[in-house]
Amino acid sequence: MFQTNRYFALPIFLPLIVACATPSPKKVNPEELSAEGHRNEAAAESANARSHEQQYAPGATELSPTRDRSGDGDLLNAAPLQNPSESHLTKAQWHKAHADAHLEAARKLEAFEDEACKGVPAKERGACPLLGPVTGIRDISGGVAIDLSPKVDAEKATAVMRCHYAFARTRGFSPEAAACPMYVRGLMIEQAGQHTVEITAKDAATTKHVRESARAESLGGH
Hints:
Layout: H1 10-19, H2 35-55, E1 62-63, E2 81-82, H3 86-116, E3 134-140, E4 143-148, H4 154-170, E5 188-191, E6 196-200, H5 204-217
């Protein structure tokens, strides 16, 4: 007599469990949108979550495709019934998590601006900082080093430039927010010495843009 392996069907059941797993929502990059855009996306994802929650019926049941049809218990822990609306619950959870991710991205943009613009009134943050008086502009790796006149407070000038960049970043570099052509995505603005400010980028196209804009906008014609 051959003995029947009561767990022979187990490998068939496991993929069905894996297939039902809820995929994690994709990560949200704050740079993709403005803070307002992220909040709009969060509102849309929340609406989707509520829609799926309304379609979930906790008491609904139907015969499960994974039930043990043989009566011999070949499918370990196979449930005879399932809730056909269960997928709506998992989708609601996914959309809610995505909404939370967009809200977090919006908060990060706003916090970045608040930190960069400490002491700067909101109505002044969008003003284009004057780049000057400038005594020289030198190309460095990734961008330019701007030598300011000794009469200019380089620390204050750097702070104002970083504030305007944060202001434009929070608003997704919209035409209204990015009044200065130099301020585009992916800039790093740092004070480098008593009278020098460095503006750099990580990609060649933005580096070229920074070098051209810095010379075009500087007071002194360098």
